[in-house]
Specification:
The complex is a heterodimer. Chain A has 8 helices and no strands. Chain A is mainly alpha-helical. Chain A has one domain. The relative contact order of chain A is 0.12. The longest helix of chain B is centred in the last third of the chain and has 51 residues, at 446-496. The chains are: A mainly alpha, B alpha+beta. The A-B interface holds A 55-57, 60, 126, 128-130 and B 441, 444, 446-447, 449-451, 453-454, 457.
């Protein structure tokens, strides 16, 4: 319990000094799968809470038009595809990260959103349309921070050079797209073969 | 003290009872409504999102498939309508219907009793050939778009042939067939004529029959593929490629407010236009498209006919989807009802070929349906009457008078979008900002919500400025004290450490 508390407490350190932070996560065991999973769960909770409490002026539909499953698919699934393709690309392109480290560091890369998005949503409630630029600037800062964290995550964990990192991020995104396309194709094939099987059984065994 | 307790008790009770009442009313509302009428009724919120409403119009009867004539005090059957094309209701609530296969125009009253026939006389000039549009002017003259004879025939109210408008001798009409299908007449007596297959818009004729120009032309809508084709095709290929002309106007109606209302089929924007005398469309930025996930409409709206009542409410009938839409004078949708006729399942309210729509002074809707060879009649319900009253008062700026009506509408239908929007604006005008905010949130109007929030914030800051400044000063002083304290602590720590 104490260890978990220390791991979560260390998140601030990671966010403020990501290069050192990712290094220590990787080699000194400052984070664990459990703490990373908790952070991902917090991320999902933040997304849901933000949808609810952000000012109506910047947030037309709120939670009305979504469902927990939809939010899960939109937030968590891309994250896992990122982890998977990050690992796969790293494995063939001299990356140093294990699957576990990549999972943990990806979760810690989301920290700026977990820390700051809810305060921004609370502040948004006193802003009107005229101050929209303030709100969008704050959101932009958080998202840019997360993007930089993800970039540093790839760079530090896999131990790449700057140019190499950009190339590999491009490859990771390409792999992610391929994973999505192939999983759709697989889904279609499974569906087809299932209905084929049913038809076949119906024909041969008079199964109903 | 006692009152306080009672109040919280009431509040707690309300938390449980209100949802139950809402659920019950919804359940009872829908079940009773669907049991009575054979069609669903919807209205639409922002982005064309549908929500169910109480039945706005009750089916009354179908008239015209058999007509009756007064003969020595007795009613005698006479020739009924055969493929009626158009309907017009005059100021005495008599119906004028163009009966195209019988080559006549009939004047009947609301019970289907024949009062007068036009175009049946021996005079060859007077005879009609497949008439379509009908219009009755203020002095009772009957204008008929005599499509088959390529003219507009004018009769006196007693059936006597008066005059005709032939194709005007004008250069711009040289290559166009003069086959009028719809017409309307403005205050000055100018004729606005829809010509069959014309992509130029509505032809305008002066009272003496001179051509004045085209009006309200639709813009050619090119799809993405069409645009690519245009760039790639040779001239020869382009010449054989159709689908490049602007959609032709399907109906024209000039309201009491002297605006020209037109509707167009098979277009995805500007299905209804409200044109001023310059030809500018006041509905240009209104999105008429509706989200059709939850009801029977498939594809775009396709309005075949339009009419406007004396209060400026717009009624349009969608031929493809069998739906009737009612808009207010600003193009906001109030209600829609109806269903497409499938098979031989003839029930009033299911539309097979609804080609024309008209409204009488009592607000009853008459829809000419060729599948029935007759006219379907609908009576507004109390709910719809209330919506009309509220909208009327509201659009005339009588906010406080319209407020109880809107509140009553919301009691009957919590989803009614226009009511939330109107109440939001009424509260805004009354400077009840927080009430306005909650209504505008339900109405999904971000712009007005933001304005109300601005006002609320100003009020709050004005009220609490003293406290705000005091709190800030206190915070800063605490901060400084803590800082000094901290430094001392650190010094102490430093002293302890060695």
């Amino acid at each position: 319990m104490k260890k978990l508390y220390m791991e979560l407490k260390y998140s601030w350190q990671v966010m403020m000094h990501p290069i050192d932070g990712f290094y220590e996560l990787q080699y000194f065991g400052k984070g664990s799968v459990l703490s990373a999973t908790i952070l991902i769960a917090l991320f999902l909770i933040c997304v849901i809470v933000n949808k609810e409490i952000t000012n109506f002026v910047f947030n037309l539909n709120g939670l009305e038009e979504t469902s927990p499953i939809q939010l899960f698919v939109y937030c968590i699934v891309p994250l896992f595809i990122w982890v998977l393709s990050n690992y796969l690309v790293g494995a063939i392109a001299n990356g140093q990260g294990s699957f576990k480290t990549i999972y943990i560091t990806t979760a810690y890369a989301l920290l700026p959103y977990i820390y700051f998005s809810i305060p921004i949503s609370i502040v948004s409630n006193v802003l009107t349309d005229a101050e929209k630029s303030i709100y969008s600037f704050l959101i932009f800062v958080v998202i840019a921070w997360v993007v930089i964290m993800l970039y540093l995550q790839v760079k530090e964990v896999q131990e790449y050079e700057i140019y190499e990192t950009f190339k590999n991020i491009f490859l990771i995104i390409f792999t992610a797209i391929l994973i999505v396309v192939f999983s759709f194709a697989l889904y279609g094939i499974v569906l087809q073969s299932y209905s084929f099987l049913i038809e076949f059984l119906r024909e041969v065994l008079a199964y109903d | 003290m006692n009152g306080g307790v009672g109040n919280t008790y009431m509040k707690n009770k309300a938390i449980f009872t209100i949802p139950i009442i809402i659920i019950l009313s919804l359940y009872m509302g829908t079940s009773s409504v669907f049991a009575k009428v054979p069609y669903p009724s919807f209205s639409f919120g922002p982005e064309g999102k549908p929500f169910p409403i109480q039945t706005p119009y009750m089916p009354e009867n179908v008239i015209g498939n058999t007509l009756y004539q007064q003969d020595q005090g007795k009613l005698v059957n006479t020739l009924g309508l055969n493929n009626p094309n158009d309907i017009f209701i005059d100021k005495n609530d008599n119906l004028f219907i163009s009966d195209s296969f019988n080559n006549r125009v009939v004047e009947i009253n609301g019970n289907g009793i024949l009062l007068q026939e036009f175009g049946m006389g021996n005079n060859p000039k007077s005879r009609l050939n497949a008439p379509d549009g009908v219009y009755v002017s203020q002095n009772g003259d009957v204008y008929v778009a005599d499509t088959g004879n390529q003219r507009i025939a004018v009769y006196q109210s007693n059936g006597q042939f008066l005059k005709e408008y032939k194709k005007p001798d004008d250069v711009s009409l040289k290559n166009i067939m003069f086959a009028p299908i719809q017409l309307s007449i403005d205050e000055r007596g100018f004729l606005f004529v829809v010509l069959r297959g014309s992509d130029e818009g509505v032809a305008v004729l002066s009272p003496d029959g001179k051509f004045q120009g085209f009006f309200g032309r639709n813009v050619t809508q090119l799809s993405l593929i069409e645009r690519i084709k245009r760039n790639l095709y040779t001239k020869q290929q382009l010449a054989t490629n159709s689908n490049q002309v602007a959609a032709s106007v399907s109906d024209v109606y000039i309201g009491n407010d002297n605006y020209v209302y037109t509707c167009t089929q098979n277009v995805s924007t500007n299905q209804i236009k409200k044109l001023n005398t310059k030809g500018e469309d006041l509905f240009d930025n209104i999105d008429f498209n509706v989200n059709n996930d939850n009801f029977s409409a498939n594809g775009d709206l396709s309005f075949s006919s339009i009419t406007v009542d004396k209060n400026g409410f717009i009624y349009a009938v969608d031929k493809e989807n069998g739906l009737i839409f009612i808009y207010d004078n600003n193009g906001h949708i109030l209600a829609s009802f109806g269903m497409k006729l499938t098979g031989n399942n003839f029930r009033i309210g299911r539309f097979g070929m609804p080609v024309s729509i008209a409204v009488n002074s009592k607000g009853e809707i008459y829809v000419v349906d060729q599948s029935y060879n007759g006219i379907q009649v609908f009576k507004p319900t109390n709910f719809m009457k209330e919506v009309f009253t509220a909208t009327n008062l509201y659009n005339n700026g009588e906010y406080s008078k319209s407020k109880p009506y809107w509140e009553d509408i919301l009691k009957k239908n919590v989803f009614y979008y226009e009511a939330h929007l109107a109440l939001g604006e009424i509260y805004y005008e009354n400077q009840q900002w927080s009430k306005s905010l909650s209504e505008l949130k339900l109405a999904k109007n971000q712009k007005m919500y933001s304005d109300a929030l601005w006002q609320l914030r100003v009020v709050w800051v004005q009220k609490n400025l003293n406290k705000l400044v005091a709190a800030l000063v206190l915070l800063f002083s605490l901060f400084f004290i803590a800082k000094k304290f901290n430094i001392k602590l650190k010094i102490k720590k430093l002293r302890i450490k060695p």
